[in-house]
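User: Please fill in residues for this 392-position structure.
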Protein backbone atom coordinates (compact mmCIF):
# COMPACT_ATOMS: atom_id res chain seq x y z
CA UNK A 1 0.00 0.00 0.00
CA UNK A 2 2.96 2.32 0.60
CA UNK A 3 3.84 1.97 -3.09
CA UNK A 4 0.31 3.07 -3.96
CA UNK A 5 0.71 6.20 -1.80
CA UNK A 6 4.07 7.00 -3.40
CA UNK A 7 2.60 6.48 -6.87
CA UNK A 8 -0.31 8.81 -6.18
CA UNK A 9 1.95 11.50 -4.71
CA UNK A 10 4.33 11.22 -7.70
CA UNK A 11 1.35 11.57 -10.06
CA UNK A 12 0.14 14.71 -8.26
CA UNK A 13 3.60 16.32 -8.21
CA UNK A 14 4.18 15.54 -11.90
CA UNK A 15 0.95 17.17 -12.95
CA UNK A 16 1.68 20.15 -10.70
CA UNK A 17 4.95 20.67 -12.58
CA UNK A 18 3.20 20.31 -15.94
CA UNK A 19 0.58 22.83 -14.90
CA UNK A 20 3.21 25.32 -13.73
CA UNK A 21 5.09 25.03 -17.03
CA UNK A 22 1.89 25.67 -18.96
CA UNK A 23 1.14 28.96 -17.25
CA UNK A 24 1.51 32.00 -19.49
CA UNK A 25 1.85 35.68 -18.94
CA UNK A 26 -1.10 38.01 -19.41
CA UNK A 27 -1.83 39.62 -22.77
CA UNK A 28 0.86 42.07 -23.79
CA UNK A 29 0.80 44.73 -26.45
CA UNK A 30 4.05 46.28 -27.61
CA UNK A 31 4.45 50.04 -27.64
CA UNK A 32 3.91 51.37 -31.10
CA UNK A 33 6.57 53.61 -32.61
CA UNK A 34 5.23 56.33 -34.89
CA UNK A 35 4.78 60.09 -35.09
CA UNK A 36 1.34 59.81 -36.64
CA UNK A 37 -1.34 60.93 -34.20
CA UNK A 38 -3.98 59.07 -36.25
CA UNK A 39 -2.12 55.77 -35.87
CA UNK A 40 -1.44 56.41 -32.16
CA UNK A 41 -5.15 57.08 -31.61
CA UNK A 42 -6.07 53.90 -33.48
CA UNK A 43 -3.57 51.92 -31.40
CA UNK A 44 -4.90 53.35 -28.13
CA UNK A 45 -8.52 52.63 -29.01
CA UNK A 46 -8.23 49.29 -30.77
CA UNK A 47 -10.69 46.64 -29.53
CA UNK A 48 -11.23 42.93 -30.15
CA UNK A 49 -14.81 41.61 -30.13
CA UNK A 50 -16.24 38.25 -29.15
CA UNK A 51 -18.16 36.47 -31.90
CA UNK A 52 -20.57 35.18 -29.27
CA UNK A 53 -22.12 38.49 -28.21
CA UNK A 54 -19.94 41.17 -29.86
CA UNK A 55 -18.73 42.26 -26.44
CA UNK A 56 -15.23 43.67 -26.07
CA UNK A 57 -12.59 41.10 -25.19
CA UNK A 58 -10.65 42.29 -22.17
CA UNK A 59 -7.05 41.20 -21.66
CA UNK A 60 -8.15 38.54 -19.17
CA UNK A 61 -10.72 37.12 -21.58
CA UNK A 62 -8.27 37.17 -24.49
CA UNK A 63 -5.85 35.27 -22.29
CA UNK A 64 -8.58 32.67 -21.57
CA UNK A 65 -9.99 32.44 -25.07
CA UNK A 66 -12.62 29.80 -25.82
CA UNK A 67 -14.66 31.42 -28.67
CA UNK A 68 -14.05 33.01 -32.07
CA UNK A 69 -13.44 36.75 -32.16
CA UNK A 70 -13.12 39.72 -34.49
CA UNK A 71 -10.28 42.17 -35.04
CA UNK A 72 -10.90 45.63 -36.59
CA UNK A 73 -10.01 46.29 -40.23
CA UNK A 74 -10.14 50.09 -39.89
CA UNK A 75 -10.19 52.83 -37.31
CA UNK A 76 -11.20 56.18 -38.74
CA UNK A 77 -8.89 56.74 -41.72
CA UNK A 78 -6.36 54.20 -40.49
CA UNK A 79 -6.32 50.84 -42.29
CA UNK A 80 -5.38 47.80 -40.22
CA UNK A 81 -4.29 44.43 -41.61
CA UNK A 82 -3.33 41.42 -39.54
CA UNK A 83 -1.16 38.33 -39.50
CA UNK A 84 -1.67 35.40 -37.12
CA UNK A 85 0.75 32.80 -35.77
CA UNK A 86 -1.12 29.76 -34.45
CA UNK A 87 -1.86 26.13 -35.32
CA UNK A 88 -5.26 26.34 -33.67
CA UNK A 89 -6.65 29.60 -35.12
CA UNK A 90 -7.17 30.98 -38.61
CA UNK A 91 -7.58 34.55 -39.79
CA UNK A 92 -10.13 35.27 -42.51
CA UNK A 93 -9.06 37.29 -45.56
CA UNK A 94 -12.55 38.72 -46.04
CA UNK A 95 -13.75 41.87 -44.32
CA UNK A 96 -17.06 41.55 -42.49
CA UNK A 97 -19.32 44.12 -40.86
CA UNK A 98 -20.68 43.79 -37.34
CA UNK A 99 -22.79 46.12 -35.22
CA UNK A 100 -21.54 46.82 -31.70
CA UNK A 101 -23.03 48.87 -28.90
CA UNK A 102 -21.43 52.20 -28.07
CA UNK A 103 -22.40 55.28 -26.05
CA UNK A 104 -24.09 56.70 -29.15
CA UNK A 105 -25.92 53.48 -30.01
CA UNK A 106 -25.16 50.74 -32.50
CA UNK A 107 -22.08 51.31 -34.64
CA UNK A 108 -21.06 49.31 -37.72
CA UNK A 109 -17.44 48.17 -37.68
CA UNK A 110 -15.39 46.50 -40.40
CA UNK A 111 -13.61 43.45 -39.02
CA UNK A 112 -11.69 40.27 -39.80
CA UNK A 113 -12.92 36.99 -38.34
CA UNK A 114 -10.50 34.90 -36.26
CA UNK A 115 -11.82 31.32 -36.04
CA UNK A 116 -10.90 28.42 -33.77
CA UNK A 117 -10.15 25.47 -36.07
CA UNK A 118 -8.89 23.09 -33.39
CA UNK A 119 -9.48 23.11 -29.64
CA UNK A 120 -6.42 22.05 -27.60
CA UNK A 121 -6.85 19.11 -25.27
CA UNK A 122 -6.12 19.42 -21.57
CA UNK A 123 -2.91 17.42 -22.07
CA UNK A 124 -1.78 19.86 -24.78
CA UNK A 125 -2.45 22.72 -22.42
CA UNK A 126 -2.81 26.43 -23.15
CA UNK A 127 -1.81 27.56 -26.63
CA UNK A 128 -0.31 31.02 -27.00
CA UNK A 129 -0.96 32.86 -30.24
CA UNK A 130 0.38 36.11 -31.66
CA UNK A 131 -1.51 38.71 -33.66
CA UNK A 132 0.51 41.34 -35.49
CA UNK A 133 -1.39 44.45 -36.54
CA UNK A 134 -0.14 46.60 -39.42
CA UNK A 135 -1.41 50.18 -39.14
CA UNK A 136 -1.41 52.26 -42.33
CA UNK A 137 -2.30 55.95 -42.62
CA UNK A 138 -1.41 57.62 -45.91
CA UNK A 139 2.36 57.05 -46.24
CA UNK A 140 2.92 56.28 -42.55
CA UNK A 141 2.88 52.71 -41.20
CA UNK A 142 3.55 50.99 -37.89
CA UNK A 143 3.16 47.54 -36.38
CA UNK A 144 2.07 46.21 -33.00
CA UNK A 145 2.00 42.68 -31.57
CA UNK A 146 -0.73 41.24 -29.37
CA UNK A 147 -0.56 37.94 -27.49
CA UNK A 148 -3.45 35.80 -26.32
CA UNK A 149 -4.04 32.27 -25.09
CA UNK A 150 -6.43 29.64 -26.40
CA UNK A 151 -7.40 27.37 -23.51
CA UNK A 152 -8.84 23.84 -23.50
CA UNK A 153 -12.57 23.49 -22.86
CA UNK A 154 -14.06 21.01 -20.43
CA UNK A 155 -15.28 17.77 -22.09
CA UNK A 156 -18.91 16.72 -21.86
CA UNK A 157 -18.08 13.27 -20.43
CA UNK A 158 -17.75 12.70 -16.69
CA UNK A 159 -14.28 11.16 -16.71
CA UNK A 160 -13.06 13.69 -19.25
CA UNK A 161 -14.41 16.44 -17.01
CA UNK A 162 -12.67 14.91 -13.98
CA UNK A 163 -9.32 14.76 -15.79
CA UNK A 164 -9.77 18.31 -17.09
CA UNK A 165 -10.70 19.67 -13.67
CA UNK A 166 -7.78 17.97 -11.95
CA UNK A 167 -5.10 19.02 -14.45
CA UNK A 168 -6.47 22.47 -15.19
CA UNK A 169 -6.84 23.51 -11.58
CA UNK A 170 -4.12 21.42 -9.91
CA UNK A 171 -2.45 24.60 -8.66
CA UNK A 172 -5.62 25.69 -6.82
CA UNK A 173 -6.14 22.20 -5.43
CA UNK A 174 -2.56 22.06 -4.16
CA UNK A 175 -2.85 25.51 -2.59
CA UNK A 176 -6.05 24.47 -0.83
CA UNK A 177 -4.55 21.16 0.29
CA UNK A 178 -1.44 22.88 1.66
CA UNK A 179 -3.57 25.37 3.60
CA UNK A 180 -5.78 22.58 4.91
CA UNK A 181 -2.79 20.57 6.13
CA UNK A 182 -1.18 23.66 7.63
CA UNK A 183 -4.27 24.68 9.61
CA UNK A 184 -4.89 21.10 10.74
CA UNK A 185 -1.32 20.50 11.88
CA UNK A 186 -0.80 23.84 13.62
CA UNK A 187 -4.26 23.72 15.17
CA UNK A 188 -3.63 20.21 16.51
CA UNK A 189 -0.25 21.17 18.00
CA UNK A 190 -1.60 24.33 19.65
CA UNK A 191 -4.67 22.43 20.80
CA UNK A 192 -2.45 19.78 22.40
CA UNK A 193 -0.61 22.29 24.59
CA UNK A 194 -3.87 24.04 25.49
CA UNK A 195 -5.30 20.65 26.39
CA UNK A 196 -2.48 20.06 28.86
CA UNK A 197 -3.49 23.22 30.71
CA UNK A 198 -7.17 22.35 30.59
CA UNK A 199 -6.73 18.77 31.80
CA UNK A 200 -4.43 20.00 34.56
CA UNK A 201 -7.25 22.20 35.81
CA UNK A 202 -9.92 19.54 35.51
CA UNK A 203 -7.93 16.86 37.31
CA UNK A 204 -7.03 19.02 40.29
CA UNK A 205 -7.68 17.26 43.60
CA UNK A 206 -8.66 19.03 46.78
CA UNK A 207 -6.55 18.05 49.78
CA UNK A 208 -7.42 18.31 53.47
CA UNK A 209 -4.27 20.37 53.85
CA UNK A 210 -5.44 23.04 51.35
CA UNK A 211 -6.34 26.46 52.69
CA UNK A 212 -9.80 27.88 52.00
CA UNK A 213 -8.36 30.12 49.28
CA UNK A 214 -6.50 27.29 47.54
CA UNK A 215 -9.56 25.07 47.82
CA UNK A 216 -11.75 27.77 46.23
CA UNK A 217 -9.25 28.38 43.41
CA UNK A 218 -9.08 24.67 42.58
CA UNK A 219 -12.86 24.46 42.45
CA UNK A 220 -13.00 27.48 40.11
CA UNK A 221 -10.36 25.97 37.81
CA UNK A 222 -12.20 22.64 37.76
CA UNK A 223 -15.47 24.31 36.79
CA UNK A 224 -13.84 26.53 34.14
CA UNK A 225 -12.09 23.51 32.57
CA UNK A 226 -15.26 21.44 32.61
CA UNK A 227 -17.33 24.29 31.14
CA UNK A 228 -14.73 24.84 28.39
CA UNK A 229 -14.85 21.19 27.37
CA UNK A 230 -18.65 21.07 27.41
CA UNK A 231 -18.90 24.31 25.42
CA UNK A 232 -16.53 23.44 22.59
CA UNK A 233 -17.54 19.79 22.35
CA UNK A 234 -21.22 20.70 22.48
CA UNK A 235 -21.24 23.25 19.64
CA UNK A 236 -20.31 22.65 15.96
CA UNK A 237 -17.06 24.15 14.70
CA UNK A 238 -18.94 25.94 11.92
CA UNK A 239 -20.99 27.81 14.54
CA UNK A 240 -17.87 28.66 16.52
CA UNK A 241 -16.13 30.00 13.39
CA UNK A 242 -19.14 32.14 12.45
CA UNK A 243 -19.45 33.48 15.99
CA UNK A 244 -15.81 34.51 16.35
CA UNK A 245 -15.50 35.91 12.81
CA UNK A 246 -18.87 37.45 11.95
CA UNK A 247 -19.92 38.12 15.52
CA UNK A 248 -16.68 39.37 17.06
CA UNK A 249 -14.54 40.04 13.98
CA UNK A 250 -11.67 38.38 15.82
CA UNK A 251 -8.11 39.29 14.71
CA UNK A 252 -9.40 41.04 11.58
CA UNK A 253 -7.94 38.14 9.58
CA UNK A 254 -10.04 35.13 8.59
CA UNK A 255 -7.06 32.76 8.52
CA UNK A 256 -5.94 33.63 12.04
CA UNK A 257 -9.53 33.41 13.26
CA UNK A 258 -9.92 29.98 11.64
CA UNK A 259 -6.69 28.74 13.21
CA UNK A 260 -7.88 30.07 16.57
CA UNK A 261 -11.17 28.18 16.27
CA UNK A 262 -9.52 24.91 15.24
CA UNK A 263 -7.05 25.18 18.13
CA UNK A 264 -9.75 25.82 20.74
CA UNK A 265 -12.00 23.10 19.38
CA UNK A 266 -9.17 20.56 19.21
CA UNK A 267 -8.03 21.42 22.75
CA UNK A 268 -11.41 20.38 24.16
CA UNK A 269 -11.25 16.94 22.55
CA UNK A 270 -7.59 16.28 23.29
CA UNK A 271 -8.15 17.32 26.92
CA UNK A 272 -10.71 14.53 27.30
CA UNK A 273 -8.37 12.13 25.51
CA UNK A 274 -5.52 12.92 27.90
CA UNK A 275 -7.85 12.78 30.91
CA UNK A 276 -8.81 9.27 29.87
CA UNK A 277 -5.11 8.44 29.59
CA UNK A 278 -4.49 9.78 33.08
CA UNK A 279 -7.37 7.75 34.51
CA UNK A 280 -5.93 4.62 32.90
CA UNK A 281 -2.75 4.92 34.97
CA UNK A 282 -2.84 2.69 38.06
CA UNK A 283 -3.38 4.61 41.29
CA UNK A 284 -0.53 2.69 42.86
CA UNK A 285 1.97 4.77 40.89
CA UNK A 286 0.62 7.95 42.45
CA UNK A 287 0.79 6.44 45.90
CA UNK A 288 4.35 5.26 45.27
CA UNK A 289 5.41 8.75 44.20
CA UNK A 290 3.90 10.22 47.37
CA UNK A 291 5.82 7.73 49.48
CA UNK A 292 9.00 8.97 47.79
CA UNK A 293 8.19 12.52 48.85
CA UNK A 294 7.21 13.82 45.41
CA UNK A 295 4.70 16.64 45.15
CA UNK A 296 1.57 16.32 43.05
CA UNK A 297 3.13 18.55 40.36
CA UNK A 298 6.23 16.35 40.22
CA UNK A 299 4.09 13.22 40.09
CA UNK A 300 2.06 14.55 37.15
CA UNK A 301 5.10 15.86 35.31
CA UNK A 302 7.48 12.94 35.64
CA UNK A 303 5.24 9.90 36.11
CA UNK A 304 1.58 10.32 35.13
CA UNK A 305 1.59 12.69 32.12
CA UNK A 306 4.41 10.97 30.15
CA UNK A 307 2.54 7.66 30.32
CA UNK A 308 -0.88 9.25 29.69
CA UNK A 309 0.37 11.18 26.66
CA UNK A 310 2.06 8.09 25.20
CA UNK A 311 -1.12 6.05 25.63
CA UNK A 312 -3.16 8.88 24.08
CA UNK A 313 -0.95 9.45 21.01
CA UNK A 314 -3.00 7.21 18.66
CA UNK A 315 -6.18 9.12 19.54
CA UNK A 316 -4.38 12.48 19.23
CA UNK A 317 -3.15 11.40 15.80
CA UNK A 318 -6.71 10.54 14.85
CA UNK A 319 -7.75 14.03 15.93
CA UNK A 320 -5.25 15.45 13.42
CA UNK A 321 -6.78 13.30 10.67
CA UNK A 322 -10.25 14.48 11.69
CA UNK A 323 -9.11 18.11 11.53
CA UNK A 324 -8.00 17.61 7.92
CA UNK A 325 -11.63 16.91 7.03
CA UNK A 326 -13.30 19.25 9.49
CA UNK A 327 -11.38 22.35 8.37
CA UNK A 328 -13.78 22.34 5.41
CA UNK A 329 -16.25 24.19 7.64
CA UNK A 330 -13.88 27.18 7.67
CA UNK A 331 -15.07 27.97 4.15
CA UNK A 332 -18.01 29.65 5.89
CA UNK A 333 -15.70 32.51 6.95
CA UNK A 334 -13.98 32.82 3.57
CA UNK A 335 -10.80 30.81 4.09
CA UNK A 336 -9.78 29.23 0.78
CA UNK A 337 -8.78 25.85 2.11
CA UNK A 338 -9.31 22.77 -0.04
CA UNK A 339 -13.11 22.68 0.06
CA UNK A 340 -13.57 26.39 -0.61
CA UNK A 341 -11.11 26.23 -3.50
CA UNK A 342 -13.24 23.43 -4.93
CA UNK A 343 -16.39 25.53 -4.62
CA UNK A 344 -14.68 28.26 -6.62
CA UNK A 345 -13.54 25.77 -9.28
CA UNK A 346 -17.01 24.22 -9.52
CA UNK A 347 -18.49 27.67 -10.14
CA UNK A 348 -16.21 28.31 -13.11
CA UNK A 349 -17.83 25.68 -15.32
CA UNK A 350 -20.97 24.80 -13.35
CA UNK A 351 -19.78 21.19 -13.26
CA UNK A 352 -20.28 20.37 -9.60
CA UNK A 353 -19.98 16.58 -9.82
CA UNK A 354 -16.52 16.50 -11.39
CA UNK A 355 -15.05 19.10 -9.03
CA UNK A 356 -16.34 17.47 -5.87
CA UNK A 357 -15.30 14.03 -7.10
CA UNK A 358 -11.73 15.31 -7.49
CA UNK A 359 -11.70 16.92 -4.03
CA UNK A 360 -13.10 13.73 -2.48
CA UNK A 361 -10.17 11.78 -3.94
CA UNK A 362 -7.71 14.42 -2.67
CA UNK A 363 -9.18 14.27 0.85
CA UNK A 364 -8.99 10.48 0.68
CA UNK A 365 -5.32 10.60 -0.37
CA UNK A 366 -4.49 13.10 2.38
CA UNK A 367 -6.21 11.20 5.18
CA UNK A 368 -4.96 7.81 3.99
CA UNK A 369 -1.37 9.06 3.73
CA UNK A 370 -1.42 10.71 7.16
CA UNK A 371 -3.11 7.67 8.72
CA UNK A 372 -0.48 5.36 7.21
CA UNK A 373 2.32 7.52 8.59
CA UNK A 374 0.70 7.60 12.04
CA UNK A 375 0.32 3.82 12.03
CA UNK A 376 4.03 3.45 11.34
CA UNK A 377 4.83 5.78 14.22
CA UNK A 378 2.48 3.85 16.52
CA UNK A 379 4.08 0.56 15.49
CA UNK A 380 7.60 1.82 16.18
CA UNK A 381 6.59 3.28 19.53
CA UNK A 382 4.53 0.19 20.37
CA UNK A 383 1.49 2.36 21.13
CA UNK A 384 -1.99 1.00 21.87
CA UNK A 385 -4.62 1.41 19.17
CA UNK A 386 -7.42 3.77 20.16
CA UNK A 387 -10.10 4.95 17.80
CA UNK A 388 -11.73 8.37 18.02
CA UNK A 389 -15.05 9.47 16.51
CA UNK A 390 -15.38 12.68 14.52
CA UNK A 391 -15.13 15.94 16.44
CA UNK A 392 -18.15 17.41 14.66
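Assistant: Residues filled in for all 392 positions:
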Amino acid sequence: MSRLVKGILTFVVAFAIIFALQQNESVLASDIETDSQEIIEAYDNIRFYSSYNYQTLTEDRLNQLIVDFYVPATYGDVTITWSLTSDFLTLSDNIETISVQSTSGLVDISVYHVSIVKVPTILQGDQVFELVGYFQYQDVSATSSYFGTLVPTIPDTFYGGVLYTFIRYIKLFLEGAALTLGISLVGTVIGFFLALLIVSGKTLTISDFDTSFVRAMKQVLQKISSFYIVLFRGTPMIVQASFFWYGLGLFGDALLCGLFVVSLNTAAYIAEIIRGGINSIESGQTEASKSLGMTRFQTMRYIILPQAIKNSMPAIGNEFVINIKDTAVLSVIGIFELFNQTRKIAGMHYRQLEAYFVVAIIYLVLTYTVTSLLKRVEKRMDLPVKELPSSN
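For context: The chain has two domains: 26-153, 167-381.
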